[in-house]
């Protein structure tokens, strides 16, 4: 079985989820970001083919069972490139920390596809951004997270599989995303009372 290294970049501090600042205050945004990141880390720990999970962030979270890679503030793409180089990680999967619906099955699908094709990308639900990048081989790759990142990534690896799944596609960036997440979370919580 292929053993993957997973890197989860997580922006901490006052800029956390800044696009939600009109809806949530700083403490609420930080609590939301923490909860989503913790959910992603827990999910990754349940994927058998992932041998190690690395949190790329300015500060460690001691209660989480993972490796910490310090974010030096050089920007997401440069930080990811440095982390991949430093870890000599191959295969490696990058998974964003704001995917509250992510499941182990989502990850297994992504990693299986990458093993077959050499790389796999998980687009956001709008089809423009990239929420996860799985690189099975050690070929050079320039991370291009940001506006229209999926097109940038596909330009480099036209052979990559595209894995569109709800758990990989739903991230929380905008007030409308937050509304949908809170509605869904409330439904999930109410259903647990009937289990």
From TrEMBL:
Keyword Nucleotide-binding: yes
Pfam families the record matches: CofC (PF01983)
EC number: 2.7.7.106
InterPro entries: CofC, Nucleotide-diphossugar_trans
GO biological process assignments: F420-0 metabolic process
GO molecular function, one term: GTP binding
Keywords: GTP-binding, Nucleotide-binding, Nucleotidyltransferase, Transferase
Keyword Transferase tagged: yes
Transmembrane segments: none
Pathway the protein takes part in: Cofactor biosynthesis; coenzyme F420 biosynthesis
Catalysed reaction equations from the record: (2R)-3-phosphoglycerate + GTP + H(+) = 3-[(R)-glyceryl]-diphospho-5'-guanosine + diphosphate
HAMAP family in UniProt: CofC (MF_02114)
PANTHER family in the cross-refs: 2-PHOSPHO-L-LACTATE GUANYLYLTRANSFERASE
Role noted for this protein: Guanylyltransferase that catalyzes the activation of (2R)-3-phosphoglycerate (3PG) as 3-[(R)-glyceryl]-diphospho-5'-guanosine, via the condensation of 3PG with GTP. It is involved in the biosynthesis of a derivative of the hydride carrier cofactor coenzyme F420, 3PG-F420.
Similarity remark: Belongs to the CofC family.
Protein name per UniProt: 3-phospho-D-glycerate guanylyltransferase
Lineage: Bacteria, Pseudomonadati, Pseudomonadota, Alphaproteobacteria, Sphingomonadales
The encoding gene: cofC
């Amino acid at each position: 079985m292929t053993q993957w290294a997973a890197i989860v970049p997580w922006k901490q501090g006052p800029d956390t989820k800044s696009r939600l600042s009109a809806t949530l205050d700083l403490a609420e945004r930080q609590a939301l970001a923490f909860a989503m990141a913790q959910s992603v880390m827990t999910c990754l720990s349940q994927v058998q083919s992932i041998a190690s999970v690395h949190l790329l962030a300015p500060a460690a979270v001691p209660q989480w069972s993972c490796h910490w890679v310090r974010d030096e503030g050089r920007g997401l793409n440069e930080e990811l490139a440095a982390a991949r180089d430093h870890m000599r990680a191959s295969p490696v999967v990058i998974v964003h920390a704001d995917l509250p619906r992510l499941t182990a099955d989502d990850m297994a699908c992504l990693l299986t596809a990458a093993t077959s094709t050499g790389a796999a990308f998980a687009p956001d639900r709008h089809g423009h951004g990239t929420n996860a990048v799985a690189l099975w081989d050690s070929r050079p790759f320039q991370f291009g997270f940001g506006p229209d990142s999926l097109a940038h990534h596909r330009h480099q690896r036209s052979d990559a599989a595209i894995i569109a799944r709800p758990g990989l596609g739903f991230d929380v960036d905008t007030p409308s995303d937050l509304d949908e997440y809170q509605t869904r979370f409330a439904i999930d919580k109410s259903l647990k009372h009937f289990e």
